[in-house]
Amino acid sequence: MSEIHVPDAEEATGVFVEHRELLFGVVYNMLGSVADTEDVLQDTWLSWSRRGAAGIDSPRAYLVRIAVNHALQRRAVVSRRRETYVGPWLPEPLVADEDGADDPALRTESVSLAMLVVLESLSPLERAVFVLHEVFGYAHTEIAEILDRTPAAVRQVAHRARAHVHARRPLYETHPRVRREATERFVRAAVGGDIAELMEILAPDVTVWTDGGGNRRPSALRPVHGRDKAVRLLTGYAKRGGAAGARAGSLELRHRRVNGDDAAVLFQGDAPYAVIVLDLTPEGDRVSNLFVVSNPDKLTHVQKEEA
User: Fold this and answer.
1) Is 273 exposed, middle or buried (0-12, 13-18, 19+ CB in 10 A)?
2) pLDDT of residue 109
3) How far apart are the first and last CA of the chain?
């Protein structure tokens, strides 16, 4: 009778933990949701624990393959959920601690919130290829093995995805100091309802995205395009209580890093009220996109440290 091999559970656990941050980064950039990412990692762990590490030449490659394919399956669930979502959907922000000590999830490669919004316009396959190649540096041959496709097919998908992304978001980086100064200036103007200052800092073709998920009022039901409409939206919010609440001390501003960029978080008491992320023009002097995530379900992991 042949001996039955029982996978070493301790070894399998150790290998999975070693690569968990990488897996989180890959899946999060494919899905834009911490909760869905954690579910995919749980499915990945279950698949991995049943298989075990024995006899696998590259556990890292094997785990990434499992995680990516679970994430592709998860996209169908995510897409159905989006059909009934109230208002614009924005990715769940990854917010660093105030003292700069990041959550393990934030030590992985993660693209900006603005880039994640662009990635939402790709097909699931295009997004997987783009994330693996452009963000994590996987070769087309490696991606072909992960997705069970030919290298030629992967190269074609990669070319299509890259062209689409770069057409919607030219490659440039804003200096962190410039981004922080712009964020501070914008928040002061928005909270204070300063129309003249908002007209100065917002680009003429700015787009404002407000994701309240139907759980936060006021919140626009679709992205607002154009400076005049954006200013009306922002000053209208201030008049309906945003500014008064902030001046009364109910809203407190903290500067944090969100998906690697300097951003702002508003707290109401100890609870997070909204995450505000600015996307600046290439010159860095105007806001081209404004992302406001206020859906409480997407802010559950944001903590307020003692000042």
Assistant:
1) buried
2) 63
3) 67
Three-state SS for 241-253 is HHHHHHHCCCEEE
Q: Which two tokens stand for residue 21?
A: 């941050």
Tokens of 207: 């787009």
Cβ atoms of residues 54 and 8 within 8 Å: yes
Is 128 within 8 Å of 30 (Cβ atoms)?
A: yes
Which residue matches tokens 């049943």? 50
Distance CA 137, CA 180 (A): 29
- Residues 5 and 48: their CA atoms lie apart, in Å, by 15
* pLDDT for residue 251: 74
Phi, psi of 211 (to 5 degrees): -105, 95
Which residues are CB-contacts of 181 (< 8 A; sequence separation ≥ 6)?
none
CA distance 111 to 127: 12
Q: How far is CA 60 from CA 142, 264, 278, in A?
A: 12, 36, 35
Closest CA to 230 of 251, 210, 252: 210
Taking the C-alpha atoms of residue 168 and residue 118, their distance in angstroms, rounded to an integer, is: 7
**What is the pLDDT of the chain when averaged over all its residues?**
86
Q: How far, CA to CA in Å, does 168 sit from each of 150, 161, 164, 215?
A: 28, 11, 7, 30
The phi, psi pair for 208, rounded to 5°, reads -110, 125
What are the structure tokens assigned to 264, written together?
């702002």
How far apart CA 187 and CA 165 sit, in angstroms, is: 29
Q: In what order do the strands lie in the sheet with 287-293?
A: 224-225, 202-211, 287-293, 271-280, 261-268, 251-258
pLDDT single digits (tens) 222-257: 899 999 999 988 887 666 544 444 443 467 888 899
Cα 60 to chain centroid distance, Å, stands at: 24
Task: Tell me the chain's radius of gyration from C-alpha atoms.
Answer: 21
Which SS3 state, helix, strand or coil, does residue 273 take? strand
